[in-house]
User: Fold this.
Amino acid sequence: MRLTKSTDIALRIVMRLAVADEANPTTREVAEVMGVQYTHAAKVVAQLQHLGVVEARRGRGGGLTLTGTGRASSIGQLVRQLEGVGDVVDCEGDVPCPLAAACRLRRALRQAQEAFYASLDPLSVEDLVADPTGPVLLTLQLK
Assistant:
């Protein structure tokens, strides 16, 4: 299973915010530190804000903060929300698969996908930033 680039960026942003010791970094600062394009980071932050994981405030004293909900979020649930509902393969695309009516692969892949998410369910954002990751995240500085 492969995560979308947006989900990867979202997880990295959430992890960075979980250890942010400075006063509310901006989206631009987090994007620069995490090595992602600002425009992509801004879209991801908007999505995280919509999910209630991140709070974003504009103006003086503004910036990004990880909410209590975001800090305690299950990584499996967060990835499900970010990735959306969908099968690993598209059996009914522009050219439907001729095996769709009797295929066992689709079901097996769906089970594998759920097992992937289930393996992430017990992990929280706090778990992801425990040693040695948290200290490494803190060493990332603006360029």
About this structure: The chain has eight helices and two strands. The first helix runs from residue 5 to 18. The chain has a mean pLDDT of 87.
